[in-house]
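Sanity check

After download, print the first record. It should look like this:
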Amino acid sequence: MRILVLGFTGYLGGPVVERLRALPGTRVLGGGRSRDADHHIDLASADTERLAKTLQAAAPDAVVNCAGATGGDAVTLAEVNARGPAALCAALRTAAPAARLVHLGSAAEYGPGVPDMRVTEEAPTSPVGPYGATKLAGTAAVAASGLDAVVLRVGNPVGPGAPATGLPGRLATLLREAGPDPSAVLRLGDLSAYRDFVDVHDLARAVELAVGAPGPLPPVLNIGGGSPVQVRELVRRLAELAGFRGRIEEDVTGSARSARVSWQCSDISAAYHALGWRPARTLEQSLAALWEDGRTP
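Expected C-alpha cells:
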C-alpha cells in the first residue's frame, strides 16, 4: 500500500508518518527519505495541474493531509487551510480518484461550546477567528469533493514536539527556562477555559485506522480526549512535572478568543463506532512525554 503524507515534517505529521511506516507492506511517500523527495508537496503554492502530475507520479492508494497553519495572517491561513485542501481534492479527482483521503480538521471549526455538553459531528459550526473559519472551509472542500474522504476533526493535540505556538509547547519552554528558581514568575493568560486534549500518538493511530478502514466512512469524525480539562489544570500538572517552584500569574482578562470559547469538548463516540478508536493515553502520559522530549540531548 502506498500512502502519501502531506505535512510530514510537522507536529502532527511526524507521529503519523512514524505510525504508518510501521505497517507491514506499506510504503510511506513524502516521509523525508531521499528517494521520496519528488513527492514533496506545498499545498499553499501548488497549482492544481502541477499537483495532479505529482499525485499521478506518486500513485497513492491513500493520501493523508496533515498540512495546516495555526498562526499567521488571514491570507496565510486561507492559503494553507482552505485553498490547500480544495486544490488537493481537485487534483486527486484527476490523478488518483480512487485513493482514500484522510484530512486533519480542527475542533476550532465548531466555535463556542455549551458548558457540560460534548459536541457531536452534526452540531452547527460557528468558528471564532480566521483559524477556525479557514479550517472549516477546508473541511467543506473535502466533504463536498465526491472522493473517498474523511475529515478527522482534532481537539487540542498534546505530546512530544509541541510547538511554541500552542500553550503546552510554550509553557514547557517557559518552565525549562525558569528551572527550579523559586523567584521565577510565569505570566500567562486566562486559564479558566476548558479544552479537549488528545495525545498526538493517539491521533496517529486514528489516522492509521482511517486509512485502512473498509468501505466509506462518515465525512467527519471527532478525534479528541472526550473529557473536558480546565487549562489551569493542565498548567498545574506540567508545572509539577517540571519541578517548578516559582509563581504563576494569570491575566484574567485573557484573549478575546479564549473568552468567547470558554468550553470545548468533543463527543468521540462516532470515531469508536466507525474505526474502533478511542484514546489510549492519559493527559499525564502526554504531558510527561512532552516534558521528557525537551530534556533529550
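If your output differs, re-run the checksum step. Summary of this record's structure: The longest strand covers residues 100-106.
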